[in-house]
Fold these 4 entries.
Entry 1:
Amino acid sequence: MPKPPAADPSPVADFEASLDALEHLVEKMEKGDMSLEESLAAYESGVGLYRRCQAALEQAELRVRLLTDPDDPAGAQPFPPATQGGAGDA
């Protein structure tokens, strides 16, 4: 029985994969063993990965806004800043 076509990865999975690839790329660049040409290609690739991460985060924010208030997603308020002590401090 043939497999059904693979669905597009979820934005969360795409974010995780892009962030992981970006972290590995940064580690490789920080070693300083790359030629100028390799560094430029890695930088270009990193910019693309960064943009994919940003797009995934923007999609996640939109989903949260829509879930919070489907009738007025633009009116959603940001979460309050986290306190230093954590969730158990009340």
Entry 2:
Amino acid sequence: MAGWLTLAVLCALCAAQTPTTPTSREEFTRRLVAAAIERTHHTIRYESAYVGIPYPSGDVPADTGACTDEIIRSYRAVGVDLQKEVHEDMVQNFDVYPSKTKWHAPRPDPSIDHRRVPNLMVFFERKGESLPVTRRAEDYAPGDLVTWDLGGNVPHIGIVVGQKTPWSGRYLVVHNVGEGPKMEDVLFNWKITGHYRYFGPGL
């Protein structure tokens, strides 16, 4: 009897610690933004090289990553596995993704496809909301995903968060441009190539 009671207590504790699924887009955005900001407390060595990882819920080593990995990890914190979502869409629609032409990949690869900005741009446009690219700071809201060309056709991605700078009035962006995840006023630092919102497959 005591053993069953102990097991019941442990199960209850586990259930209490399991994150609940957001029930609205507002809650999802709030938690996504919090997850993105939390990423800025991690020390990450920038590394974009190919790494074979498990599927689903695979990740590169926790102390490494590129700009896309900050987006992936932020979404995973609110229950959305971009590795799985991107891979499943690419299996069914490989021809619409740049992996086939840009990297000459013969088939989807769940270890790298979701870690490439151009693939994420296609995915967010297909499965989320593609929003206007403007030079108006007020058009960009917390939770929005922004992609840039850093120059020389080098893609980059970040997520807008709900904190503003007092001098510019713009929302800050969490991104990793080579020095680990940071929260900075960089929205208009480079040429914007995409503007998206994505609430996961359930919302």
Entry 3:
Amino acid sequence: MKNLIMILIGMSSFLAIMQDKKTTATEPYNLEGVWELKHQFLYNENNQISDTILNQNGYRQVKMYSKGKVMWTRFDPKDNNEWFGYGTYTIKDGILEERIEYASGPMMKIVDTTKVFKFDLVMGKGSYQQIDVDDNGHYLLAENYGKVK
């Protein structure tokens, strides 16, 4: 009887591990959770990083992803405007697409002209990068986020 119990426990553990590996392998782009902007990269015409922009003087930007929804907010002590937005997101073939449905006043002025934001998405362990790409495929700016634990 003890052997049967040990075999069942072993099989259960094996199946749990295999299920976890399957989920990881089929869902490489998992943005679920809260992310904070760490810094940004600017690129030159050869898609090489030309400069790094660090968050300074209390600047903070946070994004939250859950069940196909995205919400973000930014605080900059040097800017009296409120910056936030809410909408939906999808990820397909390494492209993050955010559709902003509601936003603060200054952001709504931008949303009036650009409602869908598309980025190349690069995932890391506990981090992700969204890269703004122009019509010719050149990188412009990357926002680099770390997962909030």
Entry 4:
Amino acid sequence: MKPYKYFLIALAIIAIDQTSKLLVHEYMHIHEEINVLGNWFKLHYLLNPGMAFGLRWENEFGKLALTIFRIAAMFGIGYYLIRASKRNSHAGFLVCLALILGGAIGNVIDSTFYGVFLDNAPLESPTKWFHGQVIDMLFFPLFEFTWPEWVPGVGGEYFLFFSPVFNIADSSIFVGVFSILLFQKKFFPHHDKKTHTESEVPATAPAPEELPESPEGNHEIAPEVDPHS
């Protein structure tokens, strides 16, 4: 596949991600929750001013720095995708890069423009540009329970798995990164083969055993015979 085909994959991720976010913004209220698959999968509308999976960077300039980092990462991943494609890297690896790129761009759009066009920047933001909040909605509270009182440190506390709320862009980035880690031997077979071959070659060849030589070189010395015997 040529590089532009992988960019089409990234574009598809961006389209799905942005469509889902705008639909949630249009038809749901903040913190509204809709059951999709019982209590296991829900749509929960949240605004995330920080990083993926609800993580936040508590700093006055944290949001601006995070947005700038996302933009730089977006261009870096795009450039690396082109280079890797020209080097005929494994198609699966290139697809993973496309998933990561699409997810990165999806969240960059939120951070850069949503503060202005959707007016969702935090009130304390110095400017609405580059301070937009990312729209999250995917919520999988698979199970919940209360820790027994005898468990040290957490006894009696409530536990929910899986508690983070995220979006399509976050999912795309996670799937791309996880797949690269999972299939790295398949994606980079030459590197693995080279490492394996080098490990089999001994650092130094063993020296041949030295045999004792006679004073005349390699000729054996005949034993002396006593003529009187």
